[in-house]
What we know:
The protein is α+β, with helices and mostly antiparallel strands. Helices cover 24% and strands 25% of the residues. The chain has 5 helices and 9 strands; from the N terminus they run βββααβαβαββββα. The longest helix has 17 residues, at 164-180. The chain is globular and about 60 Å long. The two termini are 34 Å apart. Residues 3-176 form the Thioredoxin domain. This is Thioredoxin peroxidase. InterPro entries: AhpC/TSA (IPR000866), Peroxiredoxin (IPR050217), Peroxiredoxin_AhpC-typ (IPR024706), Thioredoxin-like_sf (IPR036249), Thioredoxin_domain (IPR013766). Belongs to the peroxiredoxin family. AhpC/Prx1 subfamily. Thiol-specific peroxidase that catalyzes the reduction of hydrogen peroxide and organic hydroperoxides to water and alcohols, respectively. Plays a role in cell protection against oxidative stress by detoxifying peroxides.
Amino acid sequence: MPVLVGKRAPAFKAKAVIGQQIEEEFSLDRYLGKRYVLLFFYPSDFSGLCPTELLAFQKVLPEFEKRGVAVIGCSTDSHQVHQAWLRTPLDEGGIVGVTYPLVADATKTISANYDVLAGHFDYNETGEMVFIGTPQAYRALFLIDRDGIVRHQLVNDRFLGRRISDVLRVVDALRHFEEFGETCPANWEAEEADDVA
């Protein structure tokens, strides 16, 4: 799996659902020079584990916004499925109340370009190319700086959830380094003074 850290984040234009509105050509370009981007991939809507993460990101969204970070979710589901999931009550496995953009990677090209698409192509016994596995995104996360450069990436298998507080710590570490030029050792935590946007 290629490491994207230190490289420009792969560009894309795709449909995204923000609230209940569909944006036809959502792109990371809107954030260049303005905000950090936390682009996270998850396997699928209407699954058991995924809503716990999407709701956890929503719960701490004000903390990301305070730090100048745009949070964006992405799966290989269509925008119609995203909309349906956003309308489904929490007690039925839905994510009502999620306000950050959900990108629809139905063609699977975004996941492939970030190299987080599970499965692979191979040839069967008759020589035809077939996809082996389930073409869903791994549980991946990319922290992209204001210049569009990936500064952190984390890729988990589909059954391993993430701890959102760890993501906030990495955001704080990046901001601290950019502001003070100081590296952040193991178990580093931001001081209260650093927690200003």
